[in-house]
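Posting this for the archive.
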Amino acid sequence: MSTPRLLFLHGFLQNAKVFSEKSSGIRKLLKKAGVQCDYIDGPAVLERKDLPFELDDEKWQTVLDTQVNRAWFYHSNISKELDLTEALRTVSDYIMENGPYDGIVGFSQGAAVASIVTNTIHKLVPGHPQFKVSLLFSGYSFTEPDPSHPGELRIADKFVSDFTVPLELTTRVLFVYGASDQAVPAEKSKYLYKIYTHGEEEANNVKAFEHPGGHMVPNKKDILKPIVDEITSAFNAH
């Protein structure tokens, strides 16, 4: 069997290099299991005005010095304003040139993109097989208020097809989220999880792992080992 390969997508205000460092715990366990991990940069280059929060001069200079002013798409609290054209083109072009890939891993913004790529890989890269595994850290979808059910959310019209899970999807989808995550509250990840389980409490190929931490990729072995076991068993099942 050839070496299984995973494509990693970083979060907002990160880059490939920093995400590789921040996910060193799982990267090392995967490497030990014979899995190749490839990290790529998002296409959006952020300016200070693009941030949804304030950063002082010194912190912004650090962002520039470390070149973490990258993202997959420009932030907006209004889902229909989001534009993922460049994000999806960047990922699909990379897969066309360097693939095929056995799976995809994303954190936060990168997990939202990874979810869409998982669902639509057959359209984005014609002829590419379904991923064997999709690992979403602090993943979320693009929602808007549901006018027919006040107080509830639905996927924004613009992204309904992106977040429609194909009935024939065989990818093992793994969700990892932090109980004390303030940036992407666990409820947002659970909302996306339920899309994959089609509203059921659980599904054969969909698993969720909650950790006690915040908005991060956990690095403790006791949290990561069962996740890595799921990944390797997904590779061996195909």
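The chain has one domain: 5-237. The first strand starts at residue 5 and ends at 9.
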